[in-house]
TrEMBL record:
Every Cgl0159-like domain range: 28-284
Pfam families hit by this protein: Cgl0159 (PF22649)
Classification of source organism: Bacteria, Bacillati, Actinomycetota, Actinomycetes, Kitasatosporales
Highest taxon, organism lineage: Bacteria
Descriptive protein name: Cgl0159-like domain-containing protein
Positions of transmembrane segments: none
């Protein structure tokens, strides 16, 4: 806090001296911890509505996760990544900047998901390794078209800089005023097809995809695109049993040809049972 108030230039200095690494390491797999939820006003974990609101606690959990063997890096917004830079926690790690966080959870404009986070030039300037954008498409919400257009141009801008961008697509709908992502095989297949065709090139595009409701359908779903993909964790439920079921789904999907790894957040940082270390080590073991 003292550094931020008295020496804000320290952030750029820390970014300039950060030790970098290739996106894909010797293992050929990726294990990324996600922590970009707070910028969308999404702070709940299980039954605790403000679990992610304590920034010191979140940073401690992130530092612990990043210190575990097999963890390749982190996905977060500028504020969190800059804290981690100042803490020296990002040396030798893959750093993904979260790009669009304007679709605030529960807002009337949630699906008009503006790019209020990292711009491609910010990711390049800070020497980060990739970006991530969320693409939720509701066929009944015109805001989805704005998100699609801005997402396509962001992918173009990233490709011009030869920076990978992870696109997280969903077919969504409003149910009782709440945006719900459709995890049926048909919906996930459509979302992958739409995301793969965005922008003037897909050379630097990765997919960040959910596991379908029926994990056995993932093999057919992932045949929709040749783009490399990682699995997203999402909300795995409130109980240890829910978490075990999620792990089993990830295990099955990780064996598919285009699936290169995992991007998981709350379920590892705030596990239903056990410590952060145990949850992270278990997820790494799936790879």
């Amino acid at each position: 806090m003292t550094v931020r108030s008295r020496h804000p230039e320290a952030i750029a200095e820390a970014a300039a001296r950060r030790v970098r690494r290739p996106l894909i390491g010797d293992s050929g797999r990726l294990m990324i911890v996600a922590a970009d939820h707070p910028a969308r006003g999404s702070l709940a974990v299980g039954g605790h509505k403000l679990a992610m609101a304590n920034r010191v606690d979140l940073l401690e959990r992130l530092c612990m996760a990043l210190s575990r063997p097999g963890v390749d890096g982190v996905l977060a917004t500028a504020d969190i990544l800059e804290d981690l830079l100042l803490l020296g926690a990002l040396d030798g790690k893959v750093v993904l900047g979260s790009m669009n966080r304007g679709g605030l959870a529960g807002a009337s404009f949630e699906l008009d998901d503006r790019f209020t986070g990292h711009r491609p030039q910010d990711i390049e300037r800070l020497r980060f390794d990739a970006g991530k954008l969320l693409l939720r498409i509701d066929y009944e919400d015109a805001g989805s078209l704005t998100t699609m257009v801005t997402a396509a141009r962001a992918i173009d801008d990233m490709a011009e800089r030869r920076l990978p961008v992870f696109v997280e697509p969903f077919i969504s709908r409003r149910t009782g005023g709440k945006v719900v992502n459709d995890l049926s095989a048909e919906a996930v297949t459509k979302s992958i097809a739409i995301a793969s065709g965005l922008a003037g090139t897909s050379a630097y595009t990765w997919l960040k995809v959910p596991v379908t409701e029926d994990a056995d359908e993932m093999a057919a779903v992932m045949e929709t695109s040749t783009l490399p993909a990682v699995l997203l964790g999402g909300d795995v439920g409130k109980s240890p049993q829910d978490q075990e079921e999620a792990y089993e789904k990830w295990r099955k999907a990780l064996g598919l040809p285009t699936v290169q790894g995992l991007v998981v957040g709350r379920s590892l940082l705030y596990p239903a049972e056990g410590s952060v270390e145990t949850a992270v080590d278990t997820a790494v073991g799936l790879l």
